[in-house]
C-alpha cells in the first residue's frame, strides 16, 4: 500500500479545555494523513472512548478532573492487548506527573507550547512505533527518581551484554537507531536487534520506559 493509499492516522484528544481540543483538532486535521476521531474532556470519558474507537494515537492531558491522564493511561494500557500510542501533554518540562505517565506506558510527552509542526511530527513519530524522547527532560525526571547510594542494581543489569549496555547508554541520550548505527559502526538492523534485546531484558514497552528502567534499576547514575 502506497503512502497516498494508507488510511489516515486516527487520533483521540483528551483535554478538559474545549479551546485546547479545538486548536489541536484544527492543527491535526489540516494534514491529509491525520484524522481526529473523538474528543474527551476527562480521563473517565477517554478510557471507554479509546476502547470503542481504537485510535492509533491519543493526545492525553496530564491534569484533568477526576481520573487524570496518568490513571487514564494506566487503564488504557491495562485494558487493551494492543493499546494506542499515548502522548501526554503538559505545560511544564519538569512536571512530575509526566514521569508517572511515562512509567504507566505513555510513549512520550509534548509541551503545550509546542509548535504545530512539532505536534504533527510527534503524532506521526509515535504512530510508527517510536518514542518521543526529550533526552534532557526525561533524564532529569528519571534521575530524580533514581535510588541514591550504592544499593544493588536490578537483576536485569547483569544480563546485559557489553554491546547492549552501550546501546542502552546511547538510548538514554536520545539517539535514534540510525544515529546509534553511525556511532557504533554497525548496521541499522544490528542496532534494532540490540534495542529489542534491551527492551526485553528491562521489561520495557518502548525506549522511554527503557531509559526510566536504566535509572530506577541502578544502571544509570544520577548526574
Key terms:
223 residues; alpha/beta
Describe this structure in words.
- It is a single chain.
- The chain is globular, with a radius of gyration of 18 Å.
- The protein contains eleven helices and five strands.
- The chain has a five-stranded parallel β-sheet, sandwiched between helices.
- With 223 residues, the chain is α/β, with parallel strands linked by helices.
What oligomeric state do these chains adopt?
Answer: single chain
Judged by helices, strands and strand pairing, the structural class is: alpha/beta
Strand order of the largest sheet: 2-1-3-4-5
The helix-strand sequence is EHEHEHEHEHHHHHHH
Q: Write down how many β-strands occur, each being a DSSP E stretch of 2 or more residues.
A: 5
Q: Please state the CA-atom Rg, rounded to the nearest Å.
A: 18 Å
Strand content: 5-15%
| SS element count, helices | 11
Termini separation: 46 Å
Question: Sheet bearing the most strands, described?
Answer: 5 strands, parallel
Q: Give unreliable regions as ranges.
A: none
Amino acid at each position: 500500500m502506497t503512502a497516498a493509499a494508507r488510511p489516515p492516522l486516527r487520533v483521540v484528544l483528551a483535554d478538559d479545555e474545549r479551546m485546547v481540543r479545538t486548536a489541536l483538532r484544527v492543527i491535526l486535521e489540516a494534514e491529509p494523513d491525520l484524522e481526529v476521531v473523538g474528543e474527551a474532556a476527562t480521563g473517565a470519558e477517554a478510557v471507554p472512548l479509546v476502547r470503542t474507537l481504537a485510535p492509533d494515537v491519543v493526545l492525553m492531558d496530564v491534569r484533568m478532573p477526576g481520573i487524570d491522564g496518568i490513571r487514564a493511561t494506566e487503564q488504557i494500557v491495562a485494558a487493551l492487548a494492543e493499546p494506542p500510542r499515548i502522548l501526554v501533554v503538559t505545560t511544564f518540562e519538569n512536571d512530575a506527573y509526566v514521569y508517572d505517565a511515562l512509567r504507566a506506558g505513555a510513549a512520550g510527552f509534548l509541551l503545550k507550547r509546542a509548535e504545530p509542526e512539532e505536534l504533527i511530527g510527534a503524532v506521526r513519530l509515535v504512530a510508527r512505533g517510536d518514542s518521543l524522547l526529550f533526552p534532557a527532560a526525561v533524564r532529569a525526571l528519571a534521575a530524580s527518581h533514581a535510588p541514591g547510594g550504592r544499593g544493588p542494581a536490578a537483576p536485569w543489569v547483569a544480563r546485559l551484554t557489553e554491546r547492549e549496555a552501550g546501546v542502552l547508554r546511547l538510548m538514554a541520550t536520545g539517539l535514534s537507531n540510525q544515529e546509534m548505527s553511525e556511532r557504533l559502526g554497525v548496521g541499522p538492523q544490528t542496532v534494532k536487534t540490540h534495542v529489542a534485546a534491551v527492551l526485553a531484558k528491562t521489561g520495557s514497552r518502548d525506549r522511554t520506559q527503557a531509559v526510566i528502567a536504566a535509572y530506577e534499576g541502578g544502571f544509570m547514575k544520577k548526574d
